[in-house]
Amino acid sequence: MSRRKTPQKRTINPDPIYHSRLVSMLVNRILQSGKKTLAQQIFYQAMKKIEESTQQDPVEVLRQAVLNVTPLLEVKARRVGGSTYQVPLEVSSERGTTLALRWLIKSARTRPGNEMVSKLANEIIDASNQTGNAIRKREETHKMAEANKAFAHFRF
């Protein structure tokens, strides 16, 4: 790992339709093989589907889903005296959002079915209603942190 100064954070431009940075972050996570227009099509169709099924503002549903999935604690491996401990740490807001988006996309991809638009829309709706695989992943992470609370004094 480099011992030089850490690189500057790049600013993310908001998306052209909803003018939201969160939306452009999610589109960038959907992106595969550099096909951004396809990722945008998938996302915007999913947002239309969310609006039709919930009768609410789709950006608000997305924001609520990300807030519900965002973890507060996570565990990091820390090596002390030859043995490795899972040390619980608080998650910064930026990392929490990143993890939430990653888990949303991953759980949407693993859903049964063959159309990514409906899988993504259903996962976002489920996450906003406190159900779904992404919520389960957050609960797992919190349980791990809770179970390893005894090693919190190894925090670095």
Descriptive overview:
- With 156 residues, the chain is mainly α.
- It starts with 20 loop residues before the first helix and ends in a 9-residue tail after the last helix.
- The longest helix has 19 residues, at 36-54.
- The protein contains six helices and two strands; from the N terminus they run H-H-H-E-E-H-H-H.
- It has a single domain (21-154), classed as Orthogonal Bundle (Ribosomal Protein S7).
- The model has no long low-confidence stretch (mean pLDDT 94).
- It has a two-stranded antiparallel sheet with strand order 1-2.
- The radius of gyration is 18 Å and the shape is globular.
- This is Small ribosomal subunit protein uS7c.
- GO terms for molecular function: rRNA binding; structural constituent of ribosome.
- Keywords: Chloroplast, Plastid, Ribonucleoprotein, Ribosomal protein, RNA-binding, rRNA-binding.
